[in-house]
Task: inverse folding
């Protein structure tokens, strides 16, 4: 192929492109767009009507995952803290009030429960 033929092919392609009709939006596009904008503004002004909006920090995945991670970490730390063995309590001397309370398994809540 010589350069003349290549230029001719390009000219034909450009001519075909020039004959294309401009793109048209689908019927009632602007009506649908206006309705969508109105509902979005209406929901933004009064979020209790229609759909419920999430807080801004839950709309972002990084904040939502960070919050979820913190909740999981707190739950794991509380579970580990609750399951650790408590330090042994020293045995109170016999004949003291503390020994009496421990022997009969009384605590301050059960002593005053009848009042």
Result:
């Amino acid at each position: 192929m010589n350069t003349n033929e290549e230029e001719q092919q390009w000219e034909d392609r450009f001519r075909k492109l020039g004959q294309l009709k401009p793109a048209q939006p689908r019927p009632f596009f602007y009506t649908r767009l206006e309705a969508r904008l109105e509902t979005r503004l209406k929901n933004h002004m009064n979020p209790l009507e229609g759909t419920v909006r999430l807080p801004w920090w839950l709309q972002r995945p990084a904040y939502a995952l960070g919050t979820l991670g913190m909740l999981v970490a707190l739950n794991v730390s509380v579970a580990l803290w609750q399951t650790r063995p408590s330090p042994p309590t020293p045995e109170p001397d016999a004949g003291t009030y503390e020994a009496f309370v421990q022997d009969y398994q009384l605590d301050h809540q059960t002593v005053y429960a009848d009042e």
User: Anything to note?
Assistant: Helices lie at 3-18, 29-45, 56-59, 61-83, 97-103, 108-111. The chain has two domains: 22-53, 56-115. The mean pLDDT is 80.
